[in-house]
Amino acid sequence: MSTPAVTPEPPYFAVIFTSLLEENAEGYEETAERMMELAALQEGFLGIESARDEIGITVSYWRDEASIREWRAQAAHVEARRMGRELWYRTFRVRVSRVEREYGSP
Amino acid sequence: MSTPAVTPEPPYFAVIFTSLLEENAEGYEETAERMMELAALQEGFLGIESARDEIGITVSYWRDEASIREWRAQAAHVEARRMGRELWYRTFRVRVSRVEREYGSP
User: Fold this and answer.
1) Which residues of B touch A14 (CB under 8 A)?
2) pLDDT by residue for chain A (106 residues), tens digit each?
3) ipTM score of the complex?
4) What is the number of alpha carbons within 13 Å of residue A29 lying toward its C-beta?
5) A74 to chain B, minimum CA–CA distance in Å?
6) DSSP letters along A10-42, please?
7) What is the pTM of this model?
8) Residues in chain A whose beta carbon is closer than 8 A to a beta carbon of chain B?
């Protein structure tokens, strides 16, 4: 995504996903794009931000923990995560956090 | 930073910093590098991850809110943030969040 996400007043949740790709991660980019599109259709989705150079960081924002659980159970997302674990990621971390406050440029 | 951060058992805190740079952000890279080095010297610092392509995302991890406040008050960091607001960032967001759980590849 090309712009910082616009999110509502905290509290809400952020899923911080950090990864290092394998040298040959064929098919990864298309699936990652597709997952960003699908996530945006989920109930409770608030926004997503993603950048990659040496490592990749994707932060998705959610209304509540229930929304995160539902996205985790979404069939195409389950399959994409399996592909990620088996083929694309050399290493990855997922951190589920509760955003307490937010500020920034006007 | 080139690798995902290794953090302790939650709970701990994550500061999610998202930004879009101005076309000409002269001096930004050096200062950003220096701030990553200085942050790592702070009491309560747990790790940092950073990536930039269209947008930049830097996530720093902290033991507690007091550590975040102290880093925010550090003189060189205060000055760097002023430069950021005045010269480098077209837009930025800061989100302070409490990491509740974490998992990932072995």
Assistant:
1) 14, 16, 95, 97
2) 567 899 999 999 999 999 999 999 999 999 999 999 999 999 999 999 999 999 999 999 999 999 999 999 999 999 999 999 999 999 999 999 999 999 999 8
3) 0.95
4) 4
5) 19
6) SPEEEEEEEEEE-S--TTHHHHHHHHHHHHTTS
7) 0.96
8) 1-5, 7, 10, 14, 16, 18-20, 49-57, 59, 85, 89-105
